[in-house]
Amino acid sequence: MSQRPLNVGLIGGGGGAFIVQPHQRAIHFDGTRRVVAAALHPDPKVALEEAANWDYPITGYTNYDEMIDVESKKPVGERVDYVVVVTPNHVHFDPSIKCVRAGIPVFCEKPLTLNLDEAKQLVEAVEEAKIPFGVAHTYLGHWTSRFARFIVTSGLLGDVRWADSRYLQGWLAGRTEDAGVAQAEWRVDPKKSGISCCGGDIGTHALMQLRYITGLDVTKVQANLVTFVEGRLLDDHFTTYCELSNGGKALVRASQIAIGHKNDLGIEINGTKGTLIWDQEFPEQVKILLPNQPDRTYFRGAIAANDGFLGDLPEELMAEPNIPAGHPEAFHDAYARLHRCFEQDVRAYNDGKPFSCDGSKYANVQDGLNGMQFIQAAVDSSANGSTWVEL
Ligand SMILES: NC(=O)C1=CN([C@@H]2O[C@H](COP(=O)(O)OP(=O)(O)OC[C@H]3O[C@@H](n4cnc5c(N)ncnc54)[C@H](OP(=O)(O)O)[C@@H]3O)[C@@H](O)[C@H]2O)C=CC1
Ligand SMILES: O=C1CO[C@H](CO)[C@@H](O)[C@@H]1O
Question: Which residue numbers delimit the Gfo/Idh/MocA-like oxidoreductase N-terminal domain (predicted)?
Fold first, then answer.
């Protein structure tokens, strides 16, 4: 028998906001989730107006406190089953911890919080409430990220010696923040963005991609953060040299002044037996380079087990792609996969059953904390002449 669709609430997203749109499309992707309520804007009047003019009917709230208060008093089935936090970084912690304490699961944008202290408090609250909490590291949702993780963590490349994980953009190469671009204005403001602009905004994705695909942690960093554009208070170029938990080494780097680069998130991993290459802008492919063999390019949907490199493939992984190879999956599919997996945990939570929320399908609150520890360590290292700093 089909189940009722889950009810989702939005926090943030009015007035031409960016990432709310991919989220709300991904929420509706499978028909098993729908947006029903929202606190869309810091101005209560605008919040209600925006909700009234939303593309489909939703209940508007003047602010997220009201939404959490009213929704948490409703019975399961009528209340929001989870909320998505799509506000700037300084408005992640407060609504998230209030939802968690009110028993409402949260899917929060990255970086987890404005600072490390908030992140620690949030982890404690989530552990105490025993509630699903996801962090929107979008790119883990690509099927090819899962496939790459299987390849590396099952040892097909041998031991990881070196990884180069990058996220390069060019959109902050000039003073975009003076051109009326709201998304740039808050990202360069330490009160709204945190202690790092480039590192927090996109370096955290490069870190998460590295940790997810290799299953390894960064244990210490030497960092060099640069502000190229005059007048900025935060970095727009972010480079870290890292030690990994298996003794391997890595570069985790990001730039927002790399003119011409759009969303150039990618990773190369060199193991003792071979190399893996994954690029977000070509998200249907994984390249494998082996010694004395032709280079292999694997395409999602056209992958066969036991081909001379791959052995048996996990059933769960192979069952996942649902459109044939060559009909490309991309950004929205990745977001939808994260929401689909989060939905399973929320349904289990609603039914009082165990849920995993273990970081294997989407980033969880501990991953969010790890991102904040990484940023803090990188900022400290850079401020101290690029000395080693442990996470
Ligand atoms: N995972 C990913 O791929 C991506 C993640 N992000 C993350 O998503 C978050 C949002 O980024 P983005 O969409 O670019 O930002 P935007 O500035 O486009 O949108 C943020 C929205 O939140 C609103 N807002 C601010 N404070 C409140 C409040 N108290 N209550 C309700 N709404 C509020 C803003 O209103 P106002 O403008 O009036 O302040 C704005 O409408 C960031 O944390 C960012 O890092 C962003 C892009 C991609
Ligand atoms: O993935 C992303 C794409 O770019 C945005 C703007 O820099 C980031 O905030 C976001 O996390």
Answer: 6-137
Residue 320 has pLDDT above 90, yes or no: no
Helix (H) or strand (E) holding 37: strand 33-39
Q: How far is the CA of 12 from the centre of ligand 1 (A)?
A: 6
Count CA within 13 A, CB hemisphere, residue 40: 26
Decide: 176 in ligand 2 pocket, CB within 6 A: no
- The amino acid occupying position 383 is A
Q: Is the pLDDT of residue 268 over 90?
A: yes
18 lines ligand 1 (CB under 6 A): yes
> Tokens 């808050």 correspond to what residue?
186
Residues in the chain: 391
Structural domains in the chain, CATH included, are 6-139+335-363 (3.40.50.720), 143-325+372-383 (3.30.360.10)
Rounded Cα–Cα distance for residues 158 and 142 (Å): 23
- The pLDDT of residue 321 is above 80: no
The mean pLDDT value of the chain amounts to 98
CB atoms within 10 A of CB 313: 17
Distance 201 CA to ligand 2 centre (A): 6
DSSP strands (E only) in 148-295: 160-168, 218-226, 237-244, 249-255, 264-271, 275-279, 285-289
Q: How far apart are CA 188 and CA 175, in angstroms?
A: 10
| Pocket probe mutation, ligand 1, options 109, 181, 209, max atoms within 8 Å of Cβ | 109
Q: How far is the CA of 202 from the centre of ligand 2 (A)?
A: 6
Which pLDDT belongs to residue 322? 78
Name which residue sits closest to atom 9 of ligand 2, judged by CA: 201
- 43's CB contacts (< 8 A; 6+ apart) are none
Q: Which ligand is nearest to the CA of 167?
A: 2
Which of 23, 41, 64, 198 gets mutated to test ligand 1 (max ligand atoms within 8 A of its CB)? Answer: 41
Percent of the chain with pLDDT over 90: 98
Ligand nearest to the CA of 193: 1
**What's the pLDDT score for residue 1?**
79
Q: What ligand 1 atom has the least distance to the C-alpha of 200?
A: 45
